[in-house]
Design brief:
Helix content is 28%, strand content 21%. The chain has 267 residues and is α/β, with parallel strands linked by helices. 45% of the residues are buried.
């Protein structure tokens, strides 16, 4: 039995089989980190299991991106431990299992390549830099179709809207058969009409058993869509079901007195 997502099987099965002995996808234990002697993440312990859909929220400069880099092994904790799929995050080397969509991904002008070429890169960990087989190309095209980008497959990535670019990079992760999708503020630059559709896509990937972890500034969107919320402001102020976050005192404590309600537009 495996806790890996069913996306690779064509998504026919709606649930993820779990194995009692499978380690959490992400496990941070008492992690502290500072760029200087001042910690920006302090004593953070978080465990995320396969198939969860989690949003990290917090005010500007509260350590959200730093936390993502710690759990992806891009930064080494000053103290505590960070594990990815049961392995020390900095030593983790099965990069295809993790699809990371950074903020502003694909906006560089040095990237005049098409959506299909971007998504094709998702196969490289599996085939090296060799030629893709017909089966690999089917996986690429299915990934593009899953994110609703078939009509734009030959469009240059630099000629897409913010939301379309996000979809292209999610497709690259799907082509790599990622089990974990990590997104840093994915709806920045996405027009309001497309935000719901974007969350619909994340929901369907979650239904396929993919673990979804995102940083989101839109608190309303978080409580509507993510299943679990982690509210960070150097330390964790709240970690629980998103439905319980709405009126949480933690919201006011983490964001300050101006953010007592989610309808106030604070972020
Ligand atoms: N490379 C760096 N070197 C030094 N300080 C940094 C670096 N990156 C971030 N910081 C500082 O660490 C703190 C946390 O930053 P981080 O980017 O993790 O916050 P964030 O919650 O993601 O912020 P935002 O919501 O504004 O993107 C901030 O005070 C920031 O200025």
């Amino acid at each position: 039995m495996t806790a890996r997502s069913h996306y690779r099987d064509g998504g026919d099965e709606a649930t993820t089989e779990s194995n009692e002995t499978e380690p959490p996808v992400i496990e941070l234990t008492d992690v502290s980190f500072g760029y200087t002697s001042m910690p920006v993440v302090e004593d953070v312990s978080v465990s995320i299991d396969a198939g969860e859909y989690v949003a990290v929220v917090g005010p500007n400069g509260s350590g959200k991106s730093t936390l993502m880099q710690l759990l992806l092994g891009l930064l080494d904790p000053d103290s505590g431990t960070a594990q990815l799929f049961g392995v020390d995050a900095t030593a983790f080397d099965d990069g295809a299992r993790v699809g990371y969509v950074a903020q502003g991904a694909g906006t560089s002008r040095e990237m005049p390549i098409t959506v299909r070429e971007v998504v094709k890169m998702g196969r490289f960990p599996h085939v090296g830099f060799g030629r893709l087989s017909a089966a690999d190309w089917r996986i690429v095209d299915r990934a593009i179709d899953t994110v609703g980008m078939s009509a734009f497959a030959d469009r240059r990535i630099t000629q897409l809207s913010g939301g379309q670019r996000q979809r292209a990079f999610i497709a690259r992760a799907l082509a790599g058969e990622a089990d974990l999708l990590v997104l840093d503020e994915p709806t920045v630059g996405v027009d309001t009409e497309s935000v719901d559709a974007f969350y619909g896509l994340l929901e369907s990937l979650h239904d396929d058993g993919i673990t979804v972890l995102l940083i989101e500034h839109d608190l309303q969107a978080v409580t509507e869509h993510a299943k679990r919320v982690i509210c960070l402001n150097r330390e964790i102020y709240f970690d629980g079901p998103s439905a319980e976050f709405t009126d949480s005192a933690a919201l006011a404590r983490a964001f300050g007195t101006g953010a007592r309600s989610l309808t106030g537009g604070n972020s």
